[in-house]
Request: fold
Amino acid sequence: GVAATPHLDHALPTSGYRGQGGLRQLGGGVSSKENRVLILLNKDYEYLDLLLHQKVLTFKQGLRLACGGVSLKYVYKRIRRLIEAGYVREEVLGLHNQKIFFLTLCGWNLLKTKGLDQGLRLPEINHREIHHDLLVNEVRMKFKEMGFPDWKSERFLGKENSQKGLPDGAFLLPAKGLVAIEVELTQKKKSSYREHFINLLAEGRFCLC
Reply:
């Protein structure tokens, strides 16, 4: 593993929010299907922000990472409304017909307009990498469940440093710093891993633990 000054990539502005459970609105869109205004809530923005950073999500991943504490039915309804408003799109992929969700240009424009894009562009989707991206999400969920919710995505790390060889993500280890995470579909030579992490340590952003 491998740290730096804490910087959460999901720090959403709190101005314009009212209490917990009250109206928490930054803006809205129009649901084309029902032809009515969609009032976006804090959870909606957290979901769009998560898609901006992680690129793809399954329904369960979105539920566990951005929509904790609410019912499955409610989350499904909110995602459907985001799709109808044009902020999110879905595809059915794989042998098991799994639904995968992506951020749309409309959704990215909304985040940018509200100052929530954090300097990140609309994610470019490579369908050959979706399986890997979904596994990274699973790893992120595991660290969150273990008490390490502060995560920096590869996209966010790349914004800070555009060099090649970025980790797939990093989590904040209190009193230590950022720990780099790599998710591999196939095992590489030990020398390759050693060289990669030595280079990450040399950056000075990550810690050894």
Summary: Confidence is low (pLDDT under 50) at residues 1-26.
